[in-house]
Structures are given as structure tokens and as C-alpha cells.
Amino acid sequence: MLSVKNINKKYADGTHALKDVSLNLPIGMIGLLGPNGAGKSSLMRTLACLQTPDDGQIIFDGIDLRQNPNELRKILGYLPQYFGVYPHMSCQALLEHMAILKGIDKTTRAHQIVSLLALTNLNDVAHKKVATFSGGMRQRFGIAQALLGDPKFIIMDEPTSGLDPVERERLHSLLVTISKEKLVILSTHIVEDIENLCHHVALLIKGEVIDSADVKTLITPLEGCIWQTHIEPDANSGIQVLSKSYRFGEPCLRLYSKTKPTANATLVKANLQDRYFFELLAKETH
Question: Where are the alpha helices (DSSP H) in the chain?
């Protein structure tokens, strides 16, 4: 549905944000995973036609986005990580204003706003100022405005950032619902969210696409090589420590090794976070 071929983007300060990026993404929820500075925001701004790449080609559902950016804007929903609102406008009034800006006719926007307020669970606060909303309510409003016009292509940058567990769960349910017949690109630092929500993931590090595939395919190369232990391996052992977390105050380390690395290590099932840290370590050592 979306084809990106050999996209490059270099900024005036010399930063090469996107380096020969190529992707083929299907319909559904797509995860964009990478650390700060990986180029995720640059890629999303480029796909949203908010900036022009230096070269390359982007085709969405037969539309050449570089040649016809206005055609994309008609079918795009965009939720940036940070967005401002008019301080004195209510949720419903602001949705109405945004719908008018998108060129949605009066009858259609009336029906859509009613439907979106229900979908995002904002009916009870429809007449309250968005500026007074909690983080979770504000994010749900952001999704509602992104869905105005029934877009085919939706881009969301860190939609669950700063949300409490209950709000995250509600937002996850909403994202899964809306992604069934649309292309939804979800960018986040929370690897668990991407593994739970997305059927396809693109790994982006230092402006380059390291891999892009369904989650199972990304994890398969590490199967049989991930070990868990509570004891730190010797610094000179050469064993790769992928991650170190804590459970009930006790250390929990995940190691990469083709053979049993230590006597107390237990073989465990690989996950997307293991692949993510594995690629980060590989980049750091090259």
C-alpha cells in the first residue's frame, strides 16, 4: 500500500537524517521503532508531506506523493507528538473548526464528529475546553482530529507518551479498531506497545532501515540464543548483555549467546525488544 524507495534527507546543519530509506508497508498497524535521533520523526514528516526529501520516491495507493502532495493531504490523518490547541475552544468546537479546514461538508462533519466523540470516549467532555484536558483525554482528542475525513493513511508519533496504564489500554483498543482497514504508522519508544499492537515493524537506526518485516520474522533469528539470568557475566567474557531490568528489586539480565553463557542462565523465548537491543549493540560496535 505504501512504497518508499531510496529516500534521503539532509538538513542545512549537515545532519543526514534519512539515508537511502526503502520500505514496502501493507495495510494495518505498522510500528516504527528506533532510538532518539534515528530519523523516525524525519521519516514521518516526509511521509506526511510536511517536508520534501532530497531524492527518492514515495507511492501511496498509486499516488506519487512527491508529485501530488495535495492528493495525500486529502486522505491523511496526522497526530504529532506535541500539538497545540486554541485555549478557549471546546472539544466539539475545535473538531468542527478542523473539519471545516479539511473541507468536510456540513452534514458529513456533523455525523463524523458525533461518531468520533463516541469512538474516542469524549462525549462527556465534548463541551469542555481541550486546554483543560488530562494527557489521556488530550491524546484521544488528537486521534479524533486525525480521523476527521475518514483518512486512509494515519501517522501517529508517540501517541501513548505520558499516559497512565488505564489510558494506554484504552488507547491501544482504539488504535487496533481503527487500523483494520487503514494504514496506520505508529512511532514509539515503548517496544512492548509495538510488539502488542503491530503486525509489521520497521527498525530505524541512525537514519537507516535495519530491517522491515512482520514481528515473528524479526524475532526468529534470535530464537535459541536468548538467555536470562540474575548474575552479571564477567566483563571479559565477551557475552552480549542485551538488557538489564529489575523484577521485585532483583536484577534480570537478558543475554545473547549461541551456547549457554553461564551455569545459571536459562534459555527464554526471544522478543522484539531483544532484537531491538541486539541491533543497537551492533551499531555501537561498528
Answer: 40-47, 69-73, 91-101, 106-119, 135-147, 165-178, 191-197, 215-219, 272-284
**Three cell numbers written together for 161:** 507518551
**What does the pLDDT read at residue 286?**
64
Query: What distance in Å separates the CA atoms of residue 202 and residue 212, rounded to the nearest whole number?
Result: 4
Q: Are 51 and 44 in contact (CB under 8 A)?
A: no
pLDDT at residue 51, as a whole number? 93
Alpha-carbon gap, residue 263 to 54, rounded angstroms: 53
CA distance 209 to 4: 11
What is the DSSP secondary structure assignment for residue 234, as one 8-state letter?
Answer: P
Query: Which one, of 225, 258, 255, 218, lies nearest residue 240 by Cα?
Result: 255
Task: Please report, for residues 90, 101, 122, the alpha-carbon distance to residue 72 in angstroms, rounded to integers and kept in the order given.
Answer: 28, 15, 28
Q: Residue ranges of the domains in the chain? A: 2-75+152-214, 90-148, 220-284
Q: What is the DSSP string of 30-79?
A: EEEE--TTSSHHHHHHHHTTSS--SEEEEEETTEETTT-HHHHHTSEEEE
**Tell me, what's the pLDDT at 162?**
67
CA distances from 11 to 36, 46, 69, 165, 245 (A): 17, 12, 20, 37, 36
| DSSP bridge pairs for 64 | 59
pLDDT digit string, tens, across residues 11-25: 999 999 999 999 999
Low-confidence ranges of the chain (pLDDT < 70): 162, 286
- Look up the CATH superfamily of 2-75+152-214: P-loop containing nucleotide triphosphate hydrolases (3.40.50.300)
